[in-house]
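Folding follows sequence. Below is one example:
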Amino acid sequence: MIDPEGMLPVYVQVADVIAARIERGDLVPNRPIPSETALVQEFGVARGTARHAVEVLRERGLVATIPGRGTFVLPPK
């Protein structure tokens, strides 16, 4: 699934997988995405990589982070 030797940085690959789950409806609006810890375990990446992937999702307008609560899927625009 994630290719450390691939053309895209690992954090972008992780973000793309999560974005695909959002687009498929596996992750639904107003519900949280997996925690950084869960992403680290699932993808076998460093915490900083997981954090960067979530940042990419925020920049794409797919999620919003509420301090102390988590990161949630935004409704489609």
User: Anything to note?
Assistant: The longest helix spans residues 10-24. The chain has a mean pLDDT of 97.
